[in-house]
Amino acid sequence: MRQKLLSEGAKELSYEIREIVKKAEKIQALGQTIVWENIGDPIQKKFNMPAWMKEKIAKLFDDNETFSYCPSKGVLHTRKFLANLNNQRNGAQITEDDILFFNGLGDAIAKLYQYIEPTSRIIGPAPAYSTHSSAEAAHANHEPLTYKLDPNNHWYPDLDDLYNKIKYNPNIVGILIINPDNPTGMVYPYETLKKIVAIAREFKLFLISDEIYLNITYNGARAFALAEVIEDIPGIAMKGISKEFPWPGSRCGWMEYYNKDKDNEFARFCSALDNAKMIEVCSTKLPQLAIPEIMSDPRYLPYREEQNQIIGRRSKIVAEILSTVPQLTFNETYGAFYNTIIFREGTLKPTQKLKVSNPEVSTLVEKWVEEAMELDKRFVYYLLASKGICVVPISSFCCELQGFRVTLLEENEDNLRKIFTDIRDAVVEYLAS
Questions:
Q1: CATH architecture of 8-47+301-432
Q2: Handedness of CA 313, 129, 242, 235 (dihedral sign)
Q3: Average pLDDT over residues 366-394
Q4: How far apart, in whole angstroms, are the C-alpha atoms of residue 244 and residue 151?
Q5: How confident is the model at residue 371 (pLDDT cuts 50, 70, 90)?
Q6: Is the C-alpha dihedral spanning 55, 60, 63, 64 positive or negative?
Q7: pTM listed for this prediction
């Protein structure tokens, strides 16, 4: 080409949650049945959206207006509904003008980092969710900036690490939290959130809270929304319906701006995000129309509570099975539908293997592990080849820890027990090899 096409930041774009699928599909083609534990898609795991929700969505097709454009910021009635929902909490108050819709949170995340000054940085948690860390790193043409979540302390954030990295890196302009957290399933305690707000105040930063799992908590936990703790600090909450309804294929997410009036630079940033959406005209309309119809239905909250209890029960089953392995650091989860399991330091070695019964699959995995790679990825490849279970190596979540992420989405509890018993047995066999 006449000129270089690819930006330096493009090399930071990675998404192991999907990348592992390419390996799994090659094994599947050789006759191995695959259990997909790599991605948080309840529908893929045979969850059926309630019939009453489907009926409400279907009824929207009777109105011809459903097929038109909507305002660039989103359907006005829906934005008013969501603003009122937020304002029922004790905390930052918003209007419909403080809400902006996107085609899923992936779209929202990409836009957010795109319009931040390239030399300015957002610091986020590690293990990091790849969509955030890749987008932030790509915008800065640099590796992601992260603060540690501590597996030896319930995955709570290391606030000293966060404070010192901000103190000694003046390019940091914002702090990201994911609450409840993906990939760990940790729910930020109220006191921790207030301390993060205090750090933001001291260094004049804004806050970003990815709250896609906000209403998916269990085992006695409650996630506090950013609006409840933010006080007068500028901030953005990112929300959606893909996990909560769940309707992942809707690609419907939104931002809520808090305290735009408290900082002119932050207000200009929010306006730039609004203007970027105007250039695109608008986001998909149908799921926006469905939000107030579904969330205001008296069946919705009982439905959500029931589903949370089910996920909590699954988390207990996983804990019952995997917490028995002494070489693993295991934390119970309290939100979202993931668990991150860590191998204790020194337990993984580059010579360990699992028996693979299919000769063609064995040849394939042996070829893969000839390459230099993180030791947890090596285990993940062997688990895939030996047991047909597709998980994600935790080293791909921008951290130095070695482990893997699983989901809590298997609908059949007998299957759930078998999957995680197979994982436990594979871990024991692998570490003993």
A1: Alpha-Beta Complex (3.90)
A2: positive
A3: 94
A4: 26
A5: confident
A6: negative
A7: 0.94
CA dist., res. 401 & res. 191, Å (int): 26
Q: SS3 for 267?
A: helix
C-alpha pair distances (Å), 374 with each of 144, 183, 401: 18, 18, 10
| Among the listed residues 212, 262, 210, the one whose alpha carbon sits nearest the alpha carbon of residue 236 | 210
Q: Residue 242: phi, psi to the nearest 5?
A: -65, -30
* pLDDT for position 2: 64
Helices then strands, each counted (H, E), the chain: 14, 14
Give the domain ranges of the chain. 8-47+301-432, 51-295
Report residue 259 CA to chain centroid gap: 25
Instruction: Say how far apart CA 99 and CA 158 lie, in whole Å.
Output: 31
Q: Are 45 and 415 in contact (CB under 8 A)?
A: no
Q: Please report, to the nearest 10 degrees, the dihedral formed by the alpha carbons of residues 114, 241, 394, 223 taken in order.
A: 100
**Overall residue count recorded for the chain in this entry:** 433
Q: Which fold has domain 51-295?
A: Aspartate Aminotransferase; domain 2 (3.40.640)
Q: Tokens in use for 36?
A: 């997909």
Amino acid 329: pLDDT:
97
| Class of residue 14 by CB neighbours under 10 A (exposed 0-12, middle 13-18, buried 19+) | middle
